[in-house]
Specification:
single chain, alpha+beta, 2 domains
Length: about 150
C-alpha cells in the first residue's frame, strides 16, 4: 500500500500514516530520496526541549527554500552541537510502499515501480537463458541428425 502523507501549514511537517493503520503521525520530513524513501523525525517521540529545538529550526529564515536536512546541517544548537548530528539518532525512514525502516549503511527501500522493473528484468534474463539453452539443445540435435545422415 502506498504511503499517506498529508501536508500541514508548517514547512517540512507532514502527517504520515507510518504503520498503515489509518492513524497519521506528525513528522518533520528531512528529505525524500530518488527512490521515494521519506526520511523523517516523529515529533511525538521528542521531549519538550527537542520539540522546541525543532520548532526553532522550522522558523529558520530559508526554511521554505531549502530542504530541512540542509537547514539542520547549517544550524548550531545552544548546546554547541550541529542539529543534524544531534537529531540523526532519531531519524527514521519509510518506503513509498509504506514500510518503515531505520536508515543505516547498506539498507534502503526502493519504489514499487523499481521492484516491478527488477522482476521484469530478471524474468527476461531467465527467459533469454532458457531460450539460449533450448536453442543450444536444438542445434546439438540437428548436428547429431546431420552426422547420422552423413554416416549412412
Amino acid at each position: 500500500m502506498a504511503i499517506v502523507k498529508i501536508k500541514t501549514d508548517i514547512p517540512h511537517v507532514y502527517r504520515i500514516d507510518l504503520y498503515n493503520e489509518g492513524l497519521a503521525h506528525e513528522c518533520a520530513v528531512l528529505s525524500t530520496d530518488k527512490f521515494g524513501n521519506t526520511y523523517y523525525i516523529k515529533i511525538s517521540d521528542l521531549d519538550e526541549i527537542d520539540r522546541n529545538r525543532i520548532g526553532k529550526i522550522l522558523q529558520h529564515r530559508y526554511i521554505n527554500q531549502l530542504p530541512l536536512w540542509d537547514v539542520m546541517s547549517q544550524t548550531i544548537l545552544k548546546n554547541g552541537m550541529n542539529s543534524l548530528e544531534y537529531f540523526q539518532q532519531l531519524v527514521k525512514a519509510i518506503t513509498p510502499a509504506g514500510k518503515p525502516f531505520t536508515p543505516r549503511a547498506g539498507a534502503g527501500g526502493y519504489s514499487v515501480n523499481q521492484q516491478m522493473e527488477l522482476q521484469a528484468r530478471n524474468a527476461a534474463k531467465k527467459d533469454a537463458h532458457d531460450s539460449g539453452k533450448r536453442a543450444d539443445q536444438e542445434l546439438a540435435a540437428a548436428k547429431a541428425l546431420i552426422k547420422k545422415s552423413e554416416g549412412k
